[in-house]
Amino acid sequence: MISTVKTREIYKFLRNMLQVNEIRENKEVFIQALTKRGLDVRTEFEAVLKADEDRRGTQAQLDDTLSQSNKFSKEIGMLFKQGEVQKANELKQKSVELKETSKVLQEQLNQATERLQQLLYDLPNIPHESVPAGTDENDNEEVFLEGEIPALGDEALPHWELAKKYDIIDFELGVKVTGAGFPVYKGKGAKLQRALITYFLDKNTEAGYTEYQVPLMVNEASGFGTGQLPDKEGQMYHVTADDMYLIPTAEVPVTNLFRGNLLMHNELPITCTGYTPCFRREAGSYGAHVRGLNRLHQFDKVEIVRIEHPDNSYTALEDMVEHVKGILRDLKLPYRILRLCGGDLGFTSALTYDFEVFSTAQDRWLEISSVSNFESFQANRLKLRFKETDGRNQLVHTLNGSALALPRVLAGILENYQTPEGIKIPEVLVPYCGFDMIS
RNA sequence: GGAGAAAUGGCAGAGUGGUCGAAUGCGGCAGUCUUGAAAACUGUUGAGGGUCACACCUCCGGGGGUUCGAAUCCCUCUUUCUCCGCCA
Fold first, then answer.
1. Which end of chain A is more exposed for a tag (fewer CB within 10 A), N or C?
2. What is d(CA A302, CA A397) in angstroms, rounded to the nearest whole number?
3. Which strands, in side-by-side order, build the sheet including A418-419?
4. How far is the C-alpha of A313 from the C-alpha of A396, rounded, in Å?
5. Nucleic chain B contacts, protein chain A, residues 193-252, CB cut-off 7 A
6. DSSP A135-188
7. Which of A405, A396, A389, A406 is nearest to A373 (CA)?
8. What whole-number distance in Å separates Cα of residue A184 and Cα of residue A186?
């Protein structure tokens, strides 16, 4: 867990991470919305409001004490100038007493603030109104379906067997070098993967996203900023010697590029893309569902991130969805889009669309992209704001999505494009690969 | 890794114990002028907490200390820059 000293700093940094005022004003609406996640936060909200009241009360007392103390100090200064040393010394004594009082109050205030923060950061984001209620992936709502599922017949092989047959991915070698979940790509497999990365980046930059290359390890503050910490601490690899985390997605370093910024309104929107390997511990997953490329500890992903004016964030979300659709159409892969239900929605997200490609040989859908609007949830933690035209500072909305995650796209291509002669390369990728068949 | 310097508002950059939340410039906003724009001129402009609104409190890289009083003095951490060394 987090060391005590650091916790203090983080709390300070994250102050007011979910605005208490909003909870006060929209209490019932929020409580209602959170039932979609299967949560009853009534008692939590009461505790928040109570803690906030405590905090404000203590702050008021402290302010009064400090105010008095400041006045004395000024008077003392004046008295010394006028040569009234005795009077000054009397005041000094009083001032010392006030200082004692303020020390105690300060400590109380720190505690009250920590208590409030603790309560606040345990609360997940408020689901958007379109989010269906539900408990797990079975309640997700299919909103779009496109593409043709090829008829391959019984002899169709799952991708891990194709990988072996054509010697393009070696899972055992990865086990030797590192462990399960760290595959080695080889020959045309490696080339195809590199082609996909380049192709995705080109698509994204053509659509106006600025390409970034970012660090693959992040510090604690970044983890908090995008919401991976403390909620998902166990899912990230932690380099304890230097107290850094291997990134689980480019979202973390890319979004944190803007942490703490006060942007001008005309700087919005900011759109970024970046390719990174991603590292996930994914503890506790076993069985056929994690075979081959289905679930890995290290995988490649090209991410898109947007920082938007709150009024535009849902338009932006639709725009991102259309963008990802375009890529899948290019690749001619059958896919569907799901609107995640409350129970399946990530802690930090207000609305998420999952893209799934149909994996023909496995006869199942594989998630290859997740596009989310976090509204002001991350911005609040990141202290990422912009100056409105009226001069007021407001939190931005952040969004991100995969465009795309590599392994399952690769799995989808291998399985859907398999022929008796070998694996055909999707037309758009041929120029990037330099070959049109893996055989 | 060794030696030195530095960290101030959106940016640049003054300020070394008491009316400093902080000069000045740029940028932003509003206005004058203009057919419109630019330029020029005038005004305005840090953030957080708190309040119905004031008052008031906090913040000059982070943390701690000295003092009645700290941007200013001390300790410590972090970061940046310059020079040297090492290195893909």
1. N
2. 21
3. A418-419, A422-424, A437-438
4. 9
5. none
6. SSGGG-EEEEEES------TT---HHHHHHHTT-EEHHHHHHHT-TT--EE-TH
7. A396
8. 6
Q: How far apart are CA A95 and CA A326, in angstroms?
A: 70
| Alpha carbon separation from A66 to A74, A97, A113, A136 (Å, rounded) | 12, 11, 18, 52
Residue A16 has pLDDT above 60, yes or no: no
Separation of A65 CA and B72 C1' (Å): 25
- Quick: pLDDT tens for A342-393: 999 999 999 999 999 998 888 889 999 999 999 988 888 888 888 877 777 8
Domains and CATH numbers, chain A: 4-120 (1.10.287), 137-438 (3.30.930.10)
- Protein footprint on strand B: which nucleotides are under 7 Å from a CB? 10, 18, 28-30, 45, 47-51, 55-58, 62-63, 68-69
- For the segment A28-41, what is each residue's pLDDT rounded down to a tens digit? 888 988 999 999 98
d(CA A55, CA A40): 24
The reported pLDDT for the residue numbered A285 is 58
The pLDDT tens digits for A65-75 are 999 998 888 88
Burial category of A122 from C-beta neighbours within 10 Å (exposed 0-12, middle 13-18, buried 19 and up): middle
**Residue showing tokens 């009250």:** A112
- pLDDT higher than threshold 50 for residue A90: yes
Query: Which residues are registered as beta bridge partners of A339?
Result: A141, A353
Percent of the residues in chain A that have a pLDDT greater than 90, as a whole number = 42
Using C1' positions and the CA of A95, the closest nucleotide is B68
Strands A262-264 and A385-387: parallel
Can you give the distance from the CA of residue A277 to the C1' of nucleotide B88 in angstroms? 21
Q: What pLDDT is attached to residue A87?
A: 82
Model confidence at A8: pLDDT above 70: no
- Cα within 13 Å of Cα(A339), Cβ side: 16
Give every CB contact of residue A113 below 8 A, 6+ residues apart in sequence.
Answer: A11, A15, A55
Dig out the tokens for A273 from the structure: 């893309």
pLDDT of residue A283: 59
